[in-house]
Amino acid sequence: MHRLTPLILAAVALLAIGCGREGASESRGSAQRTLTIGAIPDQDPQELQRLYGVVADQLQRELGVKVDYRPVTDYTAAVTAFRVGDLDLVWFGGLTGVQAQRQVPGARSLAQRDIDTNFHSVFIANRRSGLEPVENQSGLRALAGRTFTFGSQNSTSGRLMPQFFLAQAGVPPQQFEGAPGFSGAHDRTIELVEAGAYEAGALNEQVWREALEEGEADRERVREIWRSPAYNDYQWIARADLDERLGDGFTERARTALLNIDGNSAQEKQILELFGAGGFVPVRPGDHREIVRAGETTGLLQK
Fold this sequence. Notes:
Radius of gyration: 24 Å
Distance between the termini: 77 Å
Number of strands: 11
CATH superfamily of the largest domain: Periplasmic binding protein-like II
CATH topology of the largest domain: D-Maltodextrin-Binding Protein, domain 2
Largest sheet: 6 strands, mixed
CATH architecture of the largest domain: 3-Layer(aba) Sandwich
CATH class of the largest domain: Alpha Beta
């Protein structure tokens, strides 16, 4: 009996190792069947949690894998998480989308909202500033010597394109009174300008319109003074390794699932309402060419 003890112990040890390997394999397999989604934090975190929670439920049902929404702290964090593989599918703005695709070879644009093909930035001003609406881009020269806030430093509609249009009008950032501010989010830009912390600012036209419709912007204290020319903005971008991790054809299935959100179910209708869109459409080659040009001109993208 004593001579058998080492053999028994060895067998138990091998069994434990085998079970451990099997458990680890199952854990890895489970992780490999999870799609992690994210988005640039361009609005209030609670609003984003509500929106992408619904999106995760929709994609989970359509794609047959677990879908987790993971919030990030800022725009740069969204790009970084995508680059290192912590996020598989991300709702990027135009600028962050270009940054992400440059950092992740093979990353693929899947869809954009119908409104993103004809998007605008809105310049707003506190009524006490005396700034009046302008008819054309050259009128932005009235902002020289004023206090001004952008949104996030990497926002397309709240920083990149406004800075690009301002530069074209002869108003580079150094012509503002003091350094320009960065509110961090579009709705925050409205709050700061309305409160008089800044005389003027620029933001996403969709957030501005919704703030007016919902009474969250006081028309007696803040108003629109100029609307920019159109450009392409937001887009869903997927990592290049989705098919390898989640099965052949998965990326195309994800693209189809997004494009098929048409509002025919209560959940799809909610998604479109929260996105402020009528549906999703394909991203065509060259759609974000203007973003690249503006980024390289302003120095926010390396040539």
